[in-house]
Amino acid sequence: MDSVDAKLVNILQTGLPVCARPFDEVAASLDLSVEELLSRLQRLLDDKVLTRFGPMFNAEKLGGALSLCALQAPADRYDEIAELVNAFTEVAHNYERDHLLNMWFVVATEQPQQAAAVIREIEQMSGCQVYDMPKQEEYFIGLQLTV
Amino acid sequence: MVLTDSDRELIAAIQGGLPVVAKPYAAIAAQLDLSEDEVIARLQLLQSAGLIKRMGVVVRHRALGYCANAMVVWDVEDAEVERIGGLLAGESCVTLCYQRPRRLPMWRYNLFCMIHGRERSSVLRRIEQIIAFHGLEDIARSVLFSGRDFKQRGARYIEPDNKVEMVKSCHG
Fold first, then answer.
1. What ipTM is given for this predicted complex?
2. Cβ of residue A43 closer than 8 Å to a chain B Cβ
3. Which of A41, A118, A127, B47 has the fewest CB atoms found within 10 Å of its own CB?
4. CATH architecture label of A65-134
């Protein structure tokens, strides 16, 4: 990853216009051809620096639900519980964190009732209480990389 | 705004990512048997209605060497949440900042922010600086670093596929 990649990632994070040739302007601003830009973007995706290039949805406005959930997994059952949680397609992220509540994951569903159902199912399968903490207010800033 | 069946098809087609080509919307249009103009017009509408926040990228911080990922949580008086949230969001190292409900007695914190850094020590130092700079010493807080990262991908909203990603990466 060089400084051109870093600049590209920073620009892509803030978003591209929805138009026929969305990469043209960015490519020009970085002094790249569109082909060069696309191959850099593809490499960043292949290297898993970026998970995807695409739409960032507002789940609530789509009518869906997005909630941060946490549970307290006993150490000797951690991997087993992580596996069952991750098997849900509705679970988008799952991180181990150093707290009594040691498993943190995001449940994203098309409809709010589905989130409640997924959470209930995880509770039944794991035997752990799930604490769900949907966002009430968002204060947003993107990660800007040092270039 | 109410989603049409066509919108749902469109969202399902792009939620996993757009094709990395010079004219991505033409490629999507060809898949869906729509015109490129129709796809663009519809996506612009979804964006202006706020359903799509932007067309961008999701960065895997860890792949960039930002291996220390701290969730810093604060127990802020309800009347103060907005002010403190705004202060934290203004810090360059804070990548997300949300107000969330407390879950008493297990969980007392109502303001969450994410701070990414290359090492735990530098993240902790940044947190101390933020606390001192804004005078947040009296607010109860906790710093939760992440250990293993099991799964990170964009949320899927429509017709999710069954792929499960297990990501093995550096231990923050």
1. 0.74
2. no
3. A127
4. 2-Layer Sandwich (3.30)
